[in-house]
Outer membrane protein beta-barrel domain-containing protein
Amino acid sequence: MGIGVGSRYNYGMKVIGGSSTVSPAISLSYEKGLMAVGPGVLGAGIFAGYQGAKYVLTSGDKWKYTDVMMTVRGSFHYPVTPEFDAYGGVGVGVRHSGVSFEGSNPNGLDTNSSTGLAYGLFVGGRYFLFENFGAFAELGYDQTYLKVGLTGKF
């Protein structure tokens, strides 16, 4: 599980005279090693992530954005040391973007939600503090540019 920063998605508008909040992206992923290739391992897995944003205008009107992403991922892991594993890969799946408005004049405002293709590239590393538990950091072009979190081996 991880927390991401630096969303690659624009949540709609720049607010003048209001306030905005954007949550960090929260993600969960699972991966299984499939086969050894040289000193490394090819793996496949799934990724699910959520992020939201809210804008409150000075008039009291509110915009809310939600972003849910689910992908399948393929990766190559290279064991640098027994504790450190470097990896990289690609992902493809779907992204659902929700938009809602609460306010005095919703007529003519675009509040259409959409679902479409999602894809990404990533590189990262996992460091195991204990035999089955560690931390990871990942740079990529999927839901966020940087993810950090906890990792485990089962």
User: Anything to note?
Assistant: The two ends are 14 Å apart (CA to CA). The domain at 2-152 is CATH 2.40.160 (Porin). DSSP finds no helices and nine strands in the chain. The CA atoms of residues 126 and 136 lie 4 Å apart.
